[in-house]
Amino acid sequence: MRRISIAISLTFFFTTPVLAHDFITQEIADGYVKKIQDARETTKVSGSESERSHAYLTIGKLLVELKSFFNRDIATHGEVNGLATKYLIATLDDSGLDLKFSKRKNFYEFDPSFFEKAIRGELDSGVKTIALGELIKGNFYQSFDGDFLETRLPSGKLKEDAERFEKLTGMQISESIDEELLFIGFILNARVAIHKGDQAMRVKARKKALELGVEFRGRFPDSLSIAALDLVETRLNSSK
Hints:
The chain is 67% helix and 2% strand. The protein is mostly helical. It has a two-stranded antiparallel sheet. Strand 1 and strand 2 form a beta hairpin. The longest helix has 29 residues, at 49-77. It is globular, with a radius of gyration of 19 Å.
């Protein structure tokens, strides 16, 4: 069986947002600390459900951005570099914010909790859509090592991930779902289709995955991810 290698996956990853700079200055670090602390304070004192949900979304997105930078630094140097960066991490740790650092993996893991809270509390569909998209992306990137389809997640979790994407598509017009999310939705359904589980559910997921593949090719014909799409479709067609 042909495997979908990490080399191919990396051609797709616009990944999580990366800071516009190559290092964090003290000024930048102070800015992040203030934004996160202000948002955390809003979640505690605001009487407005909408304000709290916006604040949870803000915290979640800032942490995704920072962890992307931290992990890139670790991948390059073996550890986080720079006094300002270390000050930023220490300050957030001291404030009681769990940055979800895995010593075993030497990696800052995705924390879904802030996006989940934003989704639960917000009546504004715009905020829910953004939070749900971030939740889908963050969970996806942590769900595999080198092969998109090989995941240790149980079948129930695979189904839940695919249903989240289905919910997202129901909250906004199809054309507004970007290349990254559309590809992830394709993979989430393909996983359900090829792994053990309810046969009717697998057939439905396979049909949905192939439909999303057609949509992806139509909307993004020049995407570097077409190569990965080809491999997954071959796997789907061999698992009928």
